[in-house]
């Protein structure tokens, strides 16, 4: 790991800074530990007598709780030192995961323990995610924000490549309890790394009420056309792309006609691998890409999400669907780095976490709807016609946004600074050139 960090730092990127390096290592360690949990949780719940329905309930508990708590977490991440928020939630999650691991190892775990852990961990994520976006913009200068966000994306992608295989081996040899113990240890080690980051100083000022600050975050989103337009597009994209995880398995395991039909679990595993490898490639590409209009490029990159659906529509062989899935995942990670670095420069620092919370809330709340709609669409429209729905949901908003004045008005200079140029005589909030101080 030391050699990897040295090579990535050598180019003068964000990792050359010791404080960001500590943040990056904390995210990498935590992601490595968490990569084994999806497999371990499924085996653990079934092993102690739970059924498929109960496993679904556990997953739903976590998803719903995080969506509900995100805006709360965003407000508090703007109020408190963000490093403190992150450190506390990592330590909290570590104790919870380690405790459940001990319950499994001693034979005392029950299904409700998993539901409680999922809900408690989701509360932690709801505070952690908004705080992370704000802390990155505190630690990293504008010229390195894109590099920083791309590197954080790699923290998620790299463990995901080997995570399921390692998890299966760990569960088979040692049992799911040890997977949770390792995950807990990774959270605690992550917290120790975060503790090395200096606490940022905040200018003392009189605080509004919680509800006023919550409304202030929403006003920040609705008052900036480029921001709410992209959030709307991202929501439609998530609605469409999430259908891949229903329509894809349906093609390879249920459908009887088509080049990719009948390839079964091996076919879907290949597509899943393509998504993982594509995400890794996208993170590496985002480290290198340089563009004058970041949100134009970001939205065009997001349009690649239609690729796997178009491959299935074209009755392409399974290897083509795999490549298309990799392209889609790469485009998503490029979008992520460009989008995050733009938001971190154009949104005032004191409102960053609240805006990020709304961004996450849109994505996480709409994705389950896509899962739920995909099946009925395939039944009522037929499989082939159903594929057109996600294609339109992905392509239309992504391509349309690339031509909107508010999106094209945002430009990135050679030194990495992102500004918004006036697009109308109105000098209101949404049209002002904004580069918040750090």
CATH class of the largest domain: Mainly Alpha
CATH fold-level name of the largest domain: Growth Hormone, Chain: A
Number of helical segments?
Answer: 18
Distance N to C terminus? 31 Å
| Poorly predicted ranges | 427-438
What is the fourth-level CATH superfamily of the largest domain? MFS general substrate transporter like domains
Radius of gyration: 22 Å
Identify the overall geometry: globular
Percent strand equals under 5%
Averaging pLDDT over every residue, what do you get? 88
**Strand order, largest beta sheet:** 1-2
Q: What percentage of residues falls in helices of 4 or more residues?
A: over 70%
User: Which quaternary structure do these chains form?
Assistant: single chain
Q: H/E series, N to C?
A: HHHHHHHHHHHHHHHHHHEE
Number of domains: 2
Please, could you describe this protein's structure?
The chain is an all-alpha fold and 438 residues long. The chain folds into two domains: 14-199, Growth Hormone, Chain: A; 220-431, Growth Hormone, Chain: A (Up-down Bundle). The chain is 76% helix and 1% strand. It contains 18 helices and two strands. It has helices at residues 2-10, 18-34, 37-47, 52-79, 82-105, 111-139, 145-174, 176-195, 210-222, 225-241, 244-253, 264-288, 294-302, 307-313, 318-346, 352-381, 383-401, 405-408, and strands at residues 410-412, 418-420. Strands 1-2 form a two-stranded antiparallel sheet. A hairpin with a 5-residue loop joins strand 1 (410-412) and strand 2. Helix 4 packs antiparallel against helix 16 and helix 7 (145-174) packs antiparallel against helix 12 (264-288). The model is unreliable at 427-438 (pLDDT under 50).
């Amino acid at each position: 790991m030391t050699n990897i960090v040295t090579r990535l730092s050598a180019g003068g990127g964000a990792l050359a800074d010791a404080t960001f390096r500590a943040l990056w290592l904390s995210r990498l360690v935590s992601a490595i530990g968490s990569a084994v949990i999806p497999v371990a949780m499924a085996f653990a719940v079934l092993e102690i007598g739970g059924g498929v329905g109960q496993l679904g309930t556990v997953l739903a508990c976590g998803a719903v709780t995080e969506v509900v708590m995100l805006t709360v977490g965003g407000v508090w991440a703007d109020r408190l030192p963000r490093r403190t928020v992150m450190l506390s939630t990592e330590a909290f999650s570590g104790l919870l995961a380690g405790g459940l691991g001990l319950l499994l190892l001693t034979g005392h775990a029950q299904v409700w323990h998993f539901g409680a852990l999922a809900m408690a961990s989701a509360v932690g994520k709801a505070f952690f995610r908004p705080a992370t976006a704000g802390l990155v913009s505190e630690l990293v200068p504008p010229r390195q924000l894109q590099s920083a966000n791309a590197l954080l994306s790699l923290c998620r992608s790299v463990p995901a490549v080997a995570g399921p295989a390692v998890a299966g081996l760990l569960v088979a040899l040692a049992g799911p309890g040890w997977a949770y113990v390792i995950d807990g240890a990774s959270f605690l080690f992550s917290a120790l790394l975060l503790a090395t980051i200096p606490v940022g100083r905040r200018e003392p000022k009189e605080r509004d009420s919680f509800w006023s600050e919550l409304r202030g975050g929403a006003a920040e989103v609705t008052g900036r056309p480029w921001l709410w337009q992209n959030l709307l597009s991202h929501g439609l994209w998530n609605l469409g792309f999430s259908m891949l995880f229903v329509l894809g398995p349906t093609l390879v395991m249920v459908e009887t006609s088509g080049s990719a039909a009948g390839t079964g679990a091996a076919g879907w595993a290949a597509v899943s691998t393509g998504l993982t490898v594509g995400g890794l490639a996208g993170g590496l590409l985002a480290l290198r890409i340089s563009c004058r209009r970041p949100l134009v490029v970001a939205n065009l990159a997001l349009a690649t999400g239609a690729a796997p659906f178009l491959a299935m529509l074209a009755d392409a062989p399974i290897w083509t669907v795999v490549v298309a899935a990799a392209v889609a995942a790469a485009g998503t990670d490029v979008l992520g780095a460009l989008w995050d670095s733009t938001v971190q420069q154009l949104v005032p620092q004191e409102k960053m976490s609240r805006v990020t919370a709304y961004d996450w809330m849109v994505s996480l709340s709409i994705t389950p709807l896509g899962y739920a709609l995909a099946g009925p669409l395939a039944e009522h429209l037929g499989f082939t016609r159903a594929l057109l729905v996600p294609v339109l949901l992905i392509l239309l908003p992504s391509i349309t946004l690339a031509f909107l004045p508010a999106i094209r008005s945002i430009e990135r200079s050679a030194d990495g600074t992102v500004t918004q140029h006036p697009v109308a005589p109105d000098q209101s909030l949404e049209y002002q050139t904004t580069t918040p101080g750090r």
